[in-house]
Amino acid sequence: MKAFRFLLVRASLIFAFLIAFPAAEAGDPDAVLWAALESGGHVALMRHALAPGTGDPDNFRIDDCATQRNLSETGRKQAREIGAQFREHGVANVAVYSSQWCRCLETAKLLGLGKVTPFAALNSFFQGKSREAAQSAEVRKLIREYAKGSSLALVTHQVNITALTGVFPQSGEIVVLRPEGDKLVVLGSILAR
Hints:
By secondary structure, the chain is of the alpha/beta class. The protein has a single domain (about 35-190), classed as Rossmann fold (3-Layer(aba) Sandwich). Helices cover about 40% and strands about 20% of the residues. It contains six helices and six strands; from the N terminus they run H-H-E-H-E-H-E-H-E-H-E-E. Strands 3-2-4-1-5-6 form a six-stranded mixed β-sheet, with helices on both faces.
C-alpha cells in the first residue's frame, strides 16, 4: 500500500509539472525535471562525475589533490556534458556549491555554471558516519535559504545524497528535489548521458 501511495504521489507530481511546464518535450523523460530546475526554488543534488575507485587512500588530505581519488578523463568529459545539459535546458540562474573534495570541486567547475562555493557540509562522511546528522542538517539549512529563489546545484558524494534522499546515485547523476519546509521531495533523477 505504501509503495502504491508513493507511485500515485509521484505520478500526480509529474502530471502537475506537465501542466505547469507545457514546453516540456514529451519525448524527453527528463524535461519535467529540467523545467523544475529552470523555474527556480529546486535543487540539483549531484554526485561528482566519474572518479574510478571507492573512498580515498589512507594518506588522504583535503588540501592535496594528489592524495585523493580524482576525476578520470571520462569524468571530466562527463562533467562538461552535464553542464551543457543545464544550459540546453535554460537552467542558468543556479547557485553552485560543492564538497571540498577535489573530484567534486573539479566537477562543479567543469559544469561551467558560474562561481563555485566550497561548502564543508557537502564533504564525504564515508569514513566518518558520526558526522552524517550534523552535515545533513547544514545542507538542509542551505536548501531552505534558497527555497524561494534560484535553484541550487550541490555537488557532493553518494553517501551524502543517500543520507538526504534514500537514493543511491551513479557518478554524475542528478537527484532533483523540491524543498517543502524541512522535507525534501525527490522529483526524480537525471542520469549523465
